[in-house]
Design a protein that fits this description.
The chain has helices spanning 12-19, 41-51, 66-69, 78-87, 104-107, 121-130, 150-157, 196-204, and strands at 4-6, 24-26, 33-37, 60-62, 92-97, 112-116, 134-135, 163-165, 177-180, 187-190. Helix content is 31%, strand content 19%. The relative contact order is 0.25. Helix 1 (12-19) crosses helix 6. Strand 9 (177-180) and strand 10 form a beta hairpin. It has eight helices and ten strands. Strands 1-8-2-3-7-4-6-5-9-10 form a ten-stranded mixed beta sheet, with helices on both faces. It binds adenosine monophosphate (AMP) and magnesium ion.
Length: 205
């Protein structure tokens, strides 16, 4: 297939590709993500296929805000609301128990789901246009460096994915911090762009 590169602000084509079950690489504040409709198991399967990602590794869902996340989580504790209010859109992924709506392939059969609202105007616009959660791991072949530009995405996936939204070079350039709120106390599963001290400060307040 031909991979369309979208350099302007018209994201209708990308939204349509997502609705049709295609793959769209999206800019975020951290690194580029490889996005599919997070409610379409077949579309999500393509992410694993093209990345060569092991089926045991769950994907995160990008959402437009914490209200949008309510459908995908069995419950949203106060701690999650506080963290989302403080750091979304931004480089924080929150792990919560998932609801029945989330396909098993997204969570790799587990009981939890990782959710994040990314800070990039184009991907926020794509979330708004589709009204869907986007399953989106980093847009690299498994075990290769995460891409920080549309050109870097094309080096991996030109001719393989439907489109790339060019949103410039990502501002942070490394991964989100992942906090698991399914246990007390919370656990940091991945140290990323948001320092743990910031999380501690908000949860104490
Ligand atoms: P990536 O988006 O490829 O940079 O990576 C997302 C990271 O989030 C991976 O390391 C996943 O294993 C991790 N992850 C996604 N969902 C969950 C979850 N439900 N519980 C724990 N870790 C998760
Ligand atoms: Mg990755």
């Amino acid at each position: 297939m031909e991979t369309t590169v979208i350099t302007n602000d018209d994201l209708a084509y990308a939204a349509d590709a997502i609705r049709r079950g295609g793959l769209v690489a999206v800019p975020t504040d951290t690194v580029y993500g490889l996005a599919a409709n997070g409610l379409n198991a077949e579309a999500v399967a393509k992410i694993y296929e093209v990345k060569g990602r092991p089926a045991i590794k769950p994907l995160i869902l990008l959402v437009s805000d914490i209200e949008a996340a309510e459908v995908f989580c069995a419950e949203i504790p106060d701690a999650a609301r506080k963290l989302a209010a403080a750091f979304w859109p931004g480089p924080l992924t929150i792990v919560l128990p998932h609801s029945d709506v989330v396909p098993d392939i997204v969570t790799a059969g587990g009981k939890t789901v990782g959710i994040r609202c990314p800070n990039h105007p184009k991907t926020l616009e794509l979330l708004r246009l589709t009204g869907l959660p986007l399953a989106a791991p980093s847009a690299n072949i498994s075990d290769m460096p995460s891409p920080k530009s549309a050109d870097a995405v094309l080096e991996y996936f030109d001719g393989v994915i439907d489109c790339v939204i060019d949103g410039g070079v990502t501002s942070l350039g490394f991964e989100s911090t992942i906090v698991d709120l399914t246990s007390e106390p919370y656990k940091i599963l991945r140290q990323g762009a948001l320092p743990e001290e910031d999380i501690k400060r908000v949860l104490k307040a």
